[in-house]
From TrEMBL:
Gene3D superfamilies: Ypt/Rab-GAP domain of gyp1p, domain 3. InterPro entries: Rab-GAP-TBC_dom, Rab-GAP_TBC_sf, TLDc_dom. Residues 345-557 form the TLDc domain. It comes from Sinocyclocheilus grahami (Dianchi golden-line fish). The gene is LOC107556663. It is found in: Cytoplasmic vesicle membrane; Endomembrane system; Synapse. This is TBC1 domain family member 24. Residues 458-480 are annotated as: Disordered. May act as a GTPase-activating protein for Rab family protein(s). Involved in neuronal projections development, probably through a negative modulation of ARF6 function. Involved in the regulation of synaptic vesicle trafficking. Interacts with ARF6. Coiled coil: none annotated.
């Protein structure tokens, strides 16, 4: 980054609300040749007290973004609008439809500056006709106006964020498909990294996905200005993944507040839960500082940007297959399991809803479909395979003769077992998980999710992929077949014992391996064993040696394996 001239970038700001932020101080350091130092300064709030410095750094970051060849700049805005410092009447510049009713946050701007945000957004709509859904744009534009010399400079900054074409990097969702798949991806991340908060949402909200659909608004819109500005520092440096981190941190702090309040967990309309979270975020400064929020956000050990991108793409594909590419009334996912149509001899409709809240969001959109049950199809492993092959994923439920209930979500088609002939070889992905329903409800995920140090994300080069541990069964290479959290070939695993998900031959099926089997079931589907395994780091799911009273396998309607 190079040095730039300092200009007055505070003309839109209501300085009476800005506390100890300096308007007139010299910009200080704005040249960063070391990316590590830049990240450290962004995360630590190095620019928070110096308006000129933050403005200069932002302009450098935005000008450094690789963009499409034809990207509208400040001159284009001046040609369209004219004098870019005159007062604007917001009503003269209606907000574009693509903001989906999102209001412009005040963010310590002068009252008349809101009209400037409207004018910029109106011009953006004219220059970017392909944008169909971008509710985050009003708060992003309002924030950037803070550090802009005039509307034209703000317009150019927003344009560069929208036109960024760096491979693998995105800054703003610009279609409903991208936005909705990001909401689903956030839900998946909550499952993995905020299990206590997710449990709270399932217990209190009638539609969990509806609650999670607000995640971007929490970060860009509801957070007070001092928090939003700090988020913007790291967002411009590190990209979209920062938004996920901050939203996860917000949810963790919200759950902590609920636990401290000792509120009874009662199911209520999702709108009430959404309103409660929004109020918490808007007043977060009463209990959390910006430093604490970012510290929490960056303490979450997320997988790589590549992993999250693959998850986003998988969710997009799921939505496309269901024809959900434009905004419409979303199906209530909590009601995807209809009590009138669901009939299991092992779990109730309420219990299957609880299980449904654990599975990846793209499959939670599907109805359960009974594929196999020992009460109808008999106790035969061959019949088990014949009824389950061709379906991906599947859900296995087991009730023992002692009345204990456990099971597994299995990410991969059982037909994959044939790759090893009759040799017992493991396959599957890190989306598999185990659970028990009785005597108490508990889920056990892939050990790498809670301990990322066990696996380092591999680079997506052919050389590195072929360098995957030879002891692992290599999954399908078709990108559409991949499920994130992910295939073993995407990780440099220290031990094969941490990636032994599922296996089967004519003699038995095994789920979870490594110094023990989480579930072993014999060829007659009659006798089983359960013990701790390294892949899931689980305790025994029921009595260590058990007799099977009933076994069911459920598929996901409209989610058959290709």
């Amino acid at each position: 980054m190079t040095e730039v001239m300092a200009v007055d970038c505070g003309v839109f700001v209501d300085w009476s609300q800005m506390g100890d932020v300096s308007r007139d101080a010299a910009p200080g350091k704005i040249e960063y040749k070391d990316l590590k130092e830049l990240k450290q300064h962004a995360r630590s709030g190095q620019w928070a007290k110096n308006h000129s410095q933050r403005s200069a750094v932002y302009q450098q970051l935005l000008k450094a973004l690789p963009c499409r060849t034809v990207t509208p700049d400040a001159a284009v805005y001046r040609d369209i609008v004219g004098n870019s410092n005159s007062k604007r009447n917001p009503s003269a510049y209606p907000l574009p439809e693509f903001v989906d009713g999102t209001a412009v946050p005040c963010y310590c701007l002068k009252a008349e500056s809101v009209g400037s945000v409207h004018a910029v957004l109106s011009s953006i709509a004219g220059q970017f006709p392909d944008i169909s859904h971008c509710p985050s744009l009003p708060p992003v534009t309002a924030l950037l106006l803070h550090w802009s010399a005039d509307e034209a400079q703000c317009f150019e900054s927003v344009s560069r964020m929208l036109a960024c074409n760096e491979p693998g990097r995105r800054l703003l969702d610009q279609t409903f498909l991208a936005y909705q798949s990001a909401c689903m991806t956030f839900g998946d991340l909550v499952h993995k990294y905020c299990p206590a908060a997710h449990k709270l949402m399932v217990a209190t909200a009638t539609d969990v996905l509806e609650v999670y659909s607000d995640w971007q608004r929490w970060v860009l819109g509801d957070l007070p200005f001092s928090f939003a500005a700090r988020v913007m520092d790291v967002y411009l440096v590190e990209g979209y993944k920062v938004l996920y981190r901050v939203a996860l941190a917000i949810l963790k702090f919200y759950r902590k507040q609920c636990a401290a309040a000792g509120s009874a967990l009662t199911k209520q309309d999702s709108a009430a839960v959404r309103s409660d979270i929004q109020a918490f975020v808007q007043n977060i400064g009463k209990s959390v500082t910006p430093d604490k929020l970012l510290e929490k956000a960056f303490s979450i050990r997320l997988f790589s940007r590549k992993e999250i991108t693959l998850l986003q793409l998988a969710n997009e594909k799921s939505l496309q297959q269901k024809g959900i590419t434009v905004k419409q009334k979303r199906q209530n996912v909590q009601l995807a399991v209809n009590a009138d149509n669901f009939s299991s001899e092992i779990v109730s409709a309420k219990e299957i809803r609880d299980i449904w809240s654990w599975i990846p969001e793209r499959f939670a959109l599907c109805q359960p479909q009974l594929l196999f049950t020992t009460s109808t199809h008999g106790c035969s492993l061959n019949r088990f395979y014949s009824h389950c092959e061709g379906y991906e994923p599947t859900l296995m439920l087991i009730r023992t003769t002692d009345g204990e209930v456990c099971g597994a979500f299995l990410s991969t088609d059982w037909e994959e077992r044939k790759r090893g002939g009759n040799k017992l070889s493991f396959f599957g992905t890190g989306e598999c998980f185990l659970f028990r329903m009785k005597p108490e409800m508990e889920r056990y995920e892939w050990v790498v999710i809670k301990h990322p140090e066990l696996a380092n994300a591999a680079q997506s080069t052919d050389d590195e992929q072929t360098g995957a541990p030879q002891s692992l069964e290599k999954p399908a290479t078709d990108p559409s077949h991949l499920s994130p959290f992910l295939s073993a070939r995407h990780f440099n695993l220290n031990s094969r014992n941490t990636s032994m998900f599922m296996a089967g031959n004519v003699d038995s099926i095994i789920i979870g391996g490594g110094e023990g089997n989480a579930l072993y079931i014999d060829s007659e589907l009659n006798h089983g064993r359960t013990e701790r395994c390294l892949t899931f780091d689980n305790p025994p799911l029921c009595a260590e040696s058990f007799q099977i009273a009933l076994l069911e396998v459920w598929g996901f309607k409209d989610a058959m394996a290709s």
